[in-house]
Amino acid sequence: MGVKIVMTICMLPLLLIMYAVLKFMGGEQRGTQYGVTMWTGANDSSQVQEIKKNYKKELNRITLFCFLLFLATLFPRYESLMITGQLLWVYLVIVLMSLPFARANGKMKAQKREYWNTLPQEEREAGKNVVLVDVTAAGTPKTKMFWKSVWGGIIFTALPVLAELYLNHVRPNPHDLNLWFCEAVLGSIAAAALLFPWYLHILAKQKTEVLTYNSQINIQIARVRRYHWGKFCVAMTWLTGALNWGILVSFRIRGQGFFWMLMAVSMIYAAAGVILCFYCWRQSEKAARKYLGKEPVVCEDKDECWLWGIFYYNKADSRSRVDSRAGIGYTYNMAKPGIKYGMTVLIALCILGTIVPCGWMILEEFTPISLVYEDDVLIADHWKEAYRIKEEEIERVVLLEEMPEITRRRGTGMERVMKGTFYSDRERRDYRVCLNPKEPPFLMIETKDGSWYLLGGNDGKETEEIYRDLHERTT
After folding, report:
1. 172: Cβ–Cβ under 8 A, 6 or more apart, which residues?
2. Which pTM was predicted?
3. What is the spatial distance between Cα 152 and Cα 241, in angstroms, rounded to a whole number?
4. Residues 6 or more apart from 185 whose CB is under 8 A from it?
5. Model confidence band, residue 137 (pLDDT cutoffs 50, 70, 90)
């Protein structure tokens, strides 16, 4: 039940976020609707109003379907199947929730084609030949990009890596997770924070976007946007540092408090990141509207370069990043080889990062645990040999009808599989464990070198027989 609660808290908000984002994307933004440049009289068209109405209905229906599908993922008895189902559900939600927008984009393009076909040939040609003003980033004064603050945040984010090494040395705690695991997590987050100075570098090199025929207005808007998104990078760098320190604190908490602390700091980080992003976008857009005023806005009719109104693909455009037509922020020009291949690798890593862990969990949970005693050797096997104990190494053996209270330090801790190193707070010792908690009794074995084992098989009667044989031979 605990795993279901955790997964629900972590996964279900994605559905609400996707719904809110697509609801926002469905509105008219900068003269576009569903990623299509609006034409004269489009808002008064009954067909366009029908497209808007159908979009809302489809979005509501798919959201309800995805919610019911999420509830279905909670039914499997096996944790591995439940977690696998929910991870696949994430990908399905992203695809299904995007379908209404893609459909609305296609319908809007069809309506626009019908409109152009009704116009005289001269007006059609005039509409296609839009002359843009060429303003490059070379003409834009360099904006202060907060480099010192960002690198200060990077150092702040990296300090927990060193702090964990120090704490593990001066205050070792038997409840602590394995040091290499803690360092890997903290180090990964510290490395991820380097994305923010990289983004600042890209932001500084980006060409000035043409919004109006007044070059000075374009330059001023570019400076304001860089300023606000620079502030966003600074805030997110320090916020990532706070996340890393919060994770370090959660590593030092015992029992279930670790998971709840980890979940709390992660949720706060995600919520704060979303709020900061929306705030910076709101401020930059507010400033852009102020500068534009009554200036005539340049409207590039490049609908053919926008796939489904979301992805930008234009080989003739030298820019690597452009403003999103729907939603907030920016999107990247997928025609650039570096971006194209980078996105392909990222998608492949995401898929591989789902398949491999899910396959491993299913293998762990569905492979039976066997306990065999033959030729004076006790072997605990779980899809491969886990432990091998010779008879002469055994000091004593005890048969337990119930599982003692133990906390996982490293290894597998599922409802039907426990394997690895676990710690008993009551006995103040580590156990090497390989058993199915649902199949008592269990063997508690002490060896002559001071090691302790908790072992069990999938057949309680066989475990009892092994206990009797060991007890007779070791007493």
Report:
1. none
2. 0.69
3. 10
4. 247
5. very low
Going by their DSSP bridges, the two strands 407-413 and 452-455 should be labelled as unpaired
Out of 125-139, 287-301, 396-410, 429-443, the most confident range is 429-443
Of 260 and 390, the structure prediction assigns the larger pLDDT to 390
Q: DSSP states of 225-240 as a string?
A: HHHHHHHHHHHHHHHH
What span, in angstroms and rounded, lies between the C-alpha atoms of 406 and 430?
9
Query: Looking at beta carbons, which pairs linking 26-30 to residues 24 or more positions away fall under 8 Å?
Result: 26/52, 26/55, 26/56, 26/59, 26/101, 26/104, 29/325, 29/326, 29/327, 30/323, 30/325
Provide the greatest CA pair distance for the chain.
104
For the chain, the 3-state helix, strand and coil shares in percent, each to the nearest 5, are 60, 15, 25
| Burial (Cβ within 10 Å: 0-12, 13-18, ≥19) of residue 361 | buried
Q: Decide: 77 and 365 in contact? Cβ < 8 Å.
A: no
Rounded to whole angstroms, how far apart are CA atoms 245 and 350? 26
Average pLDDT over residues 151-155: 90
What number of residues does the chain have? 475
**pLDDT of 104 higher than 70:** yes
